[in-house]
């Protein structure tokens, strides 16, 4: 059990289902007061009712003030979980400006905006916890999903920046980087997801378990799929070999279409 969670004010964005709902349920089970956010108000309300939380529906980029008010003025833990995933196998020829713009806004800028609102209070108190749901795509990449892979790298970079800049002032930051998770988002990845992610996909609850273990151990990088650590090391040690391997996977995917 993470003792600091008991009685804490927690916000989880994108919590109407999938990983977000699993995080909201786990925080509530550990004694936290949870704000459930989702763009779909009905889904947010359903999860909030289930866990005894507070539904604050709306755009994840603009709910910090309302969430803070709902928690009595203090947010102790902010889970930047809302995300979108778009494909784009050949961004040079199939550029979809709307997909890129929305990906940047939700996957990166929503985190930046939340931190901008939360940091003054956290730094004044000397405590706060920012949890970023990134993806293994942020450490590695993902075939057939240029906007997703690129913006998840951005989300990881921002989480790293927060940690290295403010950890000595009491801010704890965690970046969750799973591979496939059995959610609607995984189902939407199509044949690329079927090839790369579904064979080792885990349940959303496994992601929540990994986060709580990581919080207990005060770790920045949370890897629900342990094998991702090896892939990440291989990528750094021999980037050309790693890229060749990913290109082989790309070719295998193209051949299956």
From TrEMBL:
Q: Which Gene3D superfamilies match?
A: NAD(P)-binding Rossmann-like Domain
Which domain of life, per UniProt? Bacteria
The answer to whether UniProt assigns keyword Oxidoreductase to this entry is yes
Q: InterPro entries per the record?
A: NAD(P)-bd_dom_sf, SDR_fam
**CDD domains tied to this protein:** SDR_c (cd05233)
Keywords (A to Z) from UniProt: Oxidoreductase
The Swiss-Prot or TrEMBL record annotates one GO molecular function as:
oxidoreductase activity
PANTHER family reported in the protein's UniProt record:
5-KETO-D-GLUCONATE 5-REDUCTASE (PTHR43669), ALCOHOL DEHYDROGENASE, PUTATIVE (AFU_ORTHOLOGUE AFUA_3G03445)-RELATED (PTHR43669:SF3)
Family stated for the protein in its record: Belongs to the short-chain dehydrogenases/reductases (SDR) family.
Protein name, UniProt field: Dehydrogenase
Q: Which organism is it from?
A: Streptomyces viridochromogenes
């Amino acid at each position: 059990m993470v003792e600091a969670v008991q009685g804490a004010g927690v916000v989880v964005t994108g919590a109407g289902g999938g990983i977000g709902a699993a995080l909201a349920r786990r925080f509530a089970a550990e004694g936290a007061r949870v704000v459930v956010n989702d763009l779909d108000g009905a889904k947010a309300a359903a999860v909030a009712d289930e866990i005894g939380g507070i539904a604050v529906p709306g755009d994840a980029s603009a709910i910090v003030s309302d969430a803070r008010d709902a928690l009595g003025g203090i947010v102790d833990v902010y889970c930047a979980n809302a995300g979108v995933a778009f494909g784009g196998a050949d961004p040079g020829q199939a550029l979809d400006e709307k997909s890129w713009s929305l990906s940047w806004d939700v996957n990166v800028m929503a985190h930046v905006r939340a931190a901008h609102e939360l940091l003054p209070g956290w730094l004044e108190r000397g405590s706060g916890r920012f949890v970023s749901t990134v993806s293994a795509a942020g450490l590695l990449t993902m075939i057939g999903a240029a906007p997703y892979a690129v913006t998840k790298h951005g989300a990881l970079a921002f989480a790293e920046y927060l940690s290295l800049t403010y950890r000595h002032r009491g801010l704890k930051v965690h970046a969750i980087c799973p591979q496939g998770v059995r959610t609607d988002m995984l189902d939407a990845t199509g044949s690329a997801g079927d090839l790369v992610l579904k064979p080792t996909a885990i349940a959303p609850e496994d992601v929540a378990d990994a986060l709580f273990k990581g919080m207990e151990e005060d770790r920045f990088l949370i890897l629900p799929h342990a094998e991702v650590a090896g892939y990440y090391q291989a990528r750094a040690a021999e980037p050309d070999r790693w890229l060749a391997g990913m290109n082989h996977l790309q070719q295998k995917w193209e051949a299956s279409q």
